């Protein structure tokens, strides 16, 4: 045991001929909040999606709490773990998506309850009280019986975050969670994430909100063409970028 | 023309028509229930990444959808016994209609499955659901809502297709009407009454399905 919450070693990911991750290494301790920035196509979202096996990867390893994710090597051959095992490992992380992806035929509370009942095997009553607690935490207690179609984008994203957090994950993954929102709805979602960070939740965020990344992160990773281009604490990264590429990227971003 | 409508002969045999209608409904119900299961399995087959599942599903749908149902009915009833498969006329017709509806419903279900956004399945995976939990709790309920409007028109055409059972002397509504026609010579009256029974039944079915659609619709 190294004591790291997340340990990514030499991660390689290809889509056919195209290599999108060309050897990524990254470690993260309990309570870290890491923002991943970079231009589109640099591999940030793909890296996030490898961590919960929404994407397969061809080389390298990912460990959460020391446990190897997705693949096992036996007798020199690398094999994908069984679907059930992968489902269990996925529940170690929670994920919020750019498009919210709430289940449209379920109310806000039912969206949160589904995983609690099916995966955590809670009774419906127990699941409902957990769901209500988390909906309250994201400020949506009185909207718990609304359907996604009856909620604003910001409210939907908060429900989606509650749905992920309620599963009590070790690590939260946020994939550009404010990119699909109208500007006036961005802050309510960022506030929820800030609160979680303050409570010590370990988080990996892919984001285009540079100001937010600067304020909330303990570390920032700049992805460039499938590799980590630069990483460090937000102050150094944003005020004294070391590489040409990061300098250029920050110039075109909205930080200033 | 000098033809005076006289329904009294038809009314005397009305209970025969009603028994025929009951059998038509029974045939449709059993055949479509089996057809739904077949259609669902086939729809998943059509969308499978594995050729072993996809190709048989595609061949089944293609053959059945390109053969007139009357030909299928006659084939099952007259040709299969020559090959050693002997079925009673009702069993023969029900299995034909089941296989036929399975092919049509497969296409309906396939469309409904394709309309479920991938992101929802990913959201299910991300909270640790297994593939079968995602299928049961997310994909199927949404698919059903997607297909209900086109499903009801398919179900109504399949109900009307039960009239083809008359070709192999299954005593359903059309067969009974033909019998009354022959016995009473009241041609126009008999077929008017039979048509009205079909129209009324289809309207009730359509209304019930619309009700179901409303009840299952997602609040806006």
Could you give a short account of the major beta sheet of chain B? none
Shape of chain B: flat
The parts of chain B where pLDDT drops under 50 for at least 5 residues are: none
Count of helices of chain B?
9
Q: Write down the oligomeric state.
A: heterodimer
N→C terminal distance of chain A: 41 Å
Q: What does it look like?
A:
Chain A is about 35% helix and about 25% strand. Chain A has about 260 residues and is of the alpha/beta class. The relative contact order of chain A is 0.16.
Search tags:
heterodimer; A: 256 residues; six-stranded mixed beta sheet; four-stranded antiparallel beta sheet; 9 helices; B: 220 residues; mainly alpha
Please summarize what this structure is.
Chain A has 256 residues and is an alpha/beta fold. Chain A contains nine helices and twelve strands.
Annotate the secondary structure layout:
The complex is a heterodimer of chains A (256) and B (220).
Chain A: E1 6-15, E2 18-28, E3 33-37, H1 44-51, E4 59-64, E5 67-68, E6 71-74, E7 77-80, H2 83-90, E8 93-96, H3 108-118, H4 124-137, H5 153-165, E9 171-175, H6 183-198, E10 203-206, H7 210-216, E11 219-224, E12 227-232, H8 234-239, H9 244-252
Parallel strand pairs in A: 3-10, 3-11, 8-9, 9-10
Antiparallel strand pairs in A: 1-2, 1-4, 4-5, 6-7, 11-12
Helix pairs in contact in A: 3-4, 3-5, 4-5, 5-6
Chain B: H1 8-12, H2 14-46, H3 51-65, H4 69-79, H5 89-114, H6 118-126, H7 131-161, H8 173-184, H9 187-216
Helix pairs in contact in B: 2-3, 2-5, 2-7, 2-8, 3-5, 4-5, 5-7, 6-7, 7-9, 8-9
